[in-house]
Amino acid sequence: MEPAGCPMANMAQRWARQRGQRRGLQRLVVVFFAAAAFAQVGAGAERTRDLTTFVPTRIEYDSVGGAGEAYYAYEGRLWERWETDFPQAEENFAKRLRELTAVVAAKGPARLRLTDEALGDSPLIFMSDVGYMRLSEREMAALRQYLENGGMLWADDFWGDAEWASFERAMAGVLPGRRWRALSTEHPIFHTVFDIEEVPQIPARDFASPFRGANTAEPPWIHRFPAGSLATPSIRAWADDDGQLMVIATHNTDIADGWERESYGEWYFERFSTQSYRVGINVVVYALSH
């Protein structure tokens, strides 16, 4: 559904002009089919899925704790952490990806465990709300193999020091000996399609208000203790020996909520969703081209 009163067509034209001036649709087409060829190799000859279609892939995982930790109540039902924003975020993002790039994106997302044999079908997998995540040894081994084979993981929507420490511990088990680094805006992922000058801080819908001004951080009481600083968003990454990104983490920001909640209102769409889509498109094109 288009957000009420939002001139999406005009915005799409502006984005398309910028994209065309900087890269061109032809490059995106070449990039995408090269990525499809990678997926064909990784998936094996027995795969029958159409690998020329990019399928947004959400990873299902287990979390520690009980109510308010491993799961929470919202909008009249219980949500596990892994399913935050799912599937509407992916559905909306795939629609905008089809509109604004030459990538052929599936309308419906996939939902997989790390141990699913179909994991290698996608060059990019997505995790949300990973601050309480717990991975088994088998899951860590499967994720390690996926990343070493050329796949890429994007983790989004976790805030503060305790949630970061939890994710960092998990990645130490997946990629022992490798260290993360914060990406500067000079990194190519900020410029694959759109030029992004700073990491946007996208708050969940319930914490977004025009009356908060420049304060877009979520409150510490809804995140894992000790929350520490939630003020500064960043993209942090683990890379391979050649410097290619294996894992990226959008920390202190909720990019996927900008996709899921695009119809919340024109103010939210213009202020947050447009930024979320820019980041998402850049990440997907980076993943498909590397």
Distance between the termini: 33 Å
* Net shape: globular
How are the strands of the biggest sheet laid out side by side?
Answer: 6-8-11-10-9
Number of helices: 7
Strand content: 15-25%
User: How is the biggest beta sheet arranged?
Assistant: 5 strands, mixed
Annotated CATH architecture: 3-Layer(aba) Sandwich
Q: State the share of residues found in helices, binned by percent.
A: 25-40%
Low-confidence stretches: 1-9, 16-49
| Strand and helix order | HHEEEEHEEEHEHEEEHH
Strand and helix map with partners:
Elements: H1 8-22, H2 25-43, E1 57-60, E2 62-63, E3 71-74, E4 77-80, H3 88-100, E5 110-113, E6 124-128, E7 133-134, H4 137-148, E8 152-158, H5 160-174, E9 181-182, E10 234-239, E11 245-251, H6 255-260, H7 266-289
Parallel strand pairs: 1-5, 6-8, 8-11
Antiparallel strand pairs: 2-7, 3-4, 9-10, 10-11
Helix pairs in contact: 2-7, 4-5
Offer a quick outline of the entry.
This protein is 36% helix and 16% strand. The chain is built from 7 helices and 11 strands.
Walkthrough of the structure:
The protein is of the alpha/beta class. The chain has a single domain, classed as 3-Layer(aba) Sandwich (Rossmann fold). The chain is 36% helix and 16% strand. The chain contains seven helices and eleven strands. The chain has helices at 8-22, 25-43, 88-100, 137-148, 160-174, 255-260, 266-289, and strands at residues 57-60, 62-63, 71-74, 77-80, 110-113, 124-128, 133-134, 152-158, 181-182, 234-239, 245-251. The strands form four sheets. The protein has a five-stranded mixed sheet with strand order 6-8-11-10-9. A hairpin with a 5-residue loop joins β10 (234-239) and β11 (245-251). α4 crosses α5 (160-174).
